[in-house]
Amino acid sequence: MSEGAAAERDPGLQPERTRLAWRRTTLSGTVSAVLAVKTALHGGPTPATLVGCALCCALWLGFLSLAHHRIRTLTSSDTPRALTPRHATVAVLCTVAMAVCGAALVL
Hints:
This protein is an all-alpha fold and 107 residues long. Helix content is 79%, strand content 0%. The model has no long low-confidence stretch (mean pLDDT 83).
């Protein structure tokens, strides 16, 4: 492969697939958070469940913000910047923490 061919790299549909994957992930996170909150509040709100619900919603908002930032980055140019390790770490931590909060609310 020549240097000219490398400079004219055609990403194909990869950015579009990645953008759609971020959308699917935010949708599944939304459904999980809503179901966890609904399940936790079904028997009546207690201080512990209210704190858990607030934490779950805050984590969801953090992940949603990060995902929308990444989606905007992917659609802003033909060659989007790579996801930084800091953003990737925050996304993973929000996802894991939201899963733990959801599990704690359901139990």
